[in-house]
Amino acid sequence: MEGCGSYGAGLARYLAAAGIEVIEVNRPNRQLRRQRGGKSDPVDAEAAARAAASGQATAVPKSGVGPVECLRMLLVARRSATKARTQAANQIHSLVVTAPEQVKHQLRGLNLRARVRICARLCPGQAQTTVAYAKKALQHLARRYRALDAEIAQLDVEIRRLCAQANPALLRAEGVGPDTAAALLVVAGDNPERMKSERSFAALCGSSPVQASSGQTVRHRLNRGGNRKANNALWRIATTRMQNDARTQAYVAKREAEGKNRKEIIRCLKQHITREIYRQLTSPPPTPDCSRLRTRRQQAGITMTQAARALGTRPARISELELGRNHNHQLATRYQSLLHTHEAAPSPI
Hints:
This protein is mainly alpha-helical. Helices cover 65% and strands 1% of the residues. It has a two-stranded antiparallel ribbon. The termini are far apart.
């Protein structure tokens, strides 16, 4: 089948539910199709059948029946809401630039949040003047911005919940947040076992190296193919770890000493991260049970601030861990060890 992720999605799900094996094929090679006399449905059907029979096409389509498919649809809604919010912010800025001085002086030098707060409370009145209409336009845009902001926040909560439901182990990886986890889960689908190897996942994410050697110069360049949203997620994980992870910083220093530039180092990091994410997706390790952390802490008489100070983190991280919003395995293990030690031999922290 062609288009298993678009117009053929419904038929692919129906056939899979009926126990029929479905193989996804790419669209026919256009240059080869022109050489063979153009396009028609029988020609395309024959090309798809030959690709599947010869073993050239082996891709298994996404199942599209689990939490990852729900996640994909929410990401579509969030992406459009984010673009609309950015558009509203840009329009507020342009209107402030061109607004009459009576309006502009209230908003000059303020950041976006402050402008939105003030614009939402403007009182245009009933006067038929440019000042009144400027206030009315800014009021509508500010209220639209606030509504979109609330919509995005609500979607973020749902996206985090679905990520934790689909693969809680992925959220605990260093540098992986709900946005990056969602992008990587969507590219893998509800049936990540369809990816046969790390190489296939790397090619799917566009993180596999591409030869760019010439003469006696042997080098690779960044891959510009694959799913660009997943590739961007890998880039964000790499840059986050370069700033916050000690092991990654040591690796970067080693590569810089070898003469590698930043792009080459990020390319190498993305390869290592791809291998790690592939294992998280296909064989996720068990996640620690954090459901009783808060109860155990309260029974031990430990405040959240005391626990955070003992673990060298912020109280907000402890709260997120207890509520199930943070799946940091290392922090959860240390927290459980701290509580166990305090329960075994009570002593002030």
